[in-house]
Amino acid sequence: MTSASIAALREEFREVGVVRIRAGLDHESMRMAKGAYDWSLTHPSAAATTFSQKTAGKFYQDLANPLAFPAYRQLLEQSPLADLAAALWGASDVWFMYEQVFLKEGGAARRTPWHQDSSYLPVAGENLMVMWISFDPVSKPNALEFVRGSHRGVVYNGSAFDPEDDTAPLYATGTMPRLPNIEADRARWDIVSWSTEAGDVVCFHPAMLHGGGPTRLGLRRRTLSLRFFGPDAAFSPRPGRAEVPGHRVGKEGAQQAAHEESPPEGGGPVFARLSQTLSPGDPFRHPGFPRVRPR
């Protein structure tokens, strides 16, 4: 990309909160990304979840596996992802927070409820980014959707992903306002989305209100989501521990849960211990979050 196109994308990211990078990853980078994604599917953590829904389709996720970083190291160090994050922030240093994998298949699957990732994360700042990478073509009706500019607004209570009520709150304390029912009144909101192809990267600030379109019968959507932070990221505790409902899967996940007190480098259970060393407003740093730029 030219310096002019980078500057335009940086401004779009700052103002809108989300940008789509066409063909942001080349074939080799996508090979590394797919290898990391496949590792996550075959090594479920204790957090692996199959969401409850009213249809026969499968909606699976896993995130922040404390054993994942070695499987993701090549992608993080040899692909352009960290450089892209730095360019969109106008910063030099980039740290990796954690990975998240999604799989929708086997029939029609519910849409991902509207929510903000920031509701679940004890971090605030401008230098925050989620990179969303799909290994399958996604049409606009099934794509990830965003409320333009919402990263500069209210941080709502998280969605508990209740199949009966997408706005059912995650935290019971009442200190964060309940999510609005965006899906019931879509015309009121300035919603932006794109169709994507394999190799495209959608980059957004985690405070963006966003939700994912449903998956129709016969379609499969395999998605890798990576979270990064930069120099201005600061510790911002939430009113409780974020627990997404669902059931855990796999013996390996149970074995990992038993070893969470001494995880290798990578995110995972680091979140539960941040308050032991950080105070609100402190720089968001921990040995479990590796710096991936400069290399």
State the gist of this model:
19% of the residues lie in helices and 22% in strands. The chain has helices spanning 3-16, 27-42, 69-78, 81-89, 251-258, and strands at residues 18-21, 49-50, 58-63, 94-105, 112-115, 123-124, 128-134, 144-147, 191-193, 201-204, 210-212, 221-229, 234-235, 291-293.
Order of helices and strands: HEHEEHHEEEEEEEEEEHE
Mean pLDDT: 86
| Helix content estimate | 10-25%
Q: Decide which structural class fits the backbone.
A: alpha+beta
Enumerate the spans where pLDDT stays under 50 for 5 or more consecutive residues. 243-267
Oligomeric state as shown: single chain
Major beta sheet summary: 8 strands, antiparallel
Beta fraction of the residues? Answer: 15-25%
Tell how many strands the DSSP assignment holds.
Answer: 14
Radius of gyration: 18 Å
Question: What report would you give on this structure?
Answer:
The chain has 295 residues and is an alpha+beta fold. It has 5 helices and 14 strands. Strands 1, 2, 3, 4, 7, 10, 12 and 14 form an 8-stranded antiparallel beta sheet that branches. The longest helix has 16 residues, at 27-42. The two termini are 21 Å apart.
Helix and strand arrangement:
Blueprint: H1 3-16, E1 18-21, H2 27-42, E2 49-50, E3 58-63, H3 69-78, H4 81-89, E4 94-105, E5 112-115, E6 123-124, E7 128-134, E8 144-147, E9 191-193, E10 201-204, E11 210-212, E12 221-229, E13 234-235, H5 251-258, E14 291-293
Antiparallel strand pairs: 1-10, 2-3, 3-4, 4-12, 4-14, 5-11, 6-13, 7-10, 7-12, 8-9, 8-11
Helix pairs in contact: 2-3
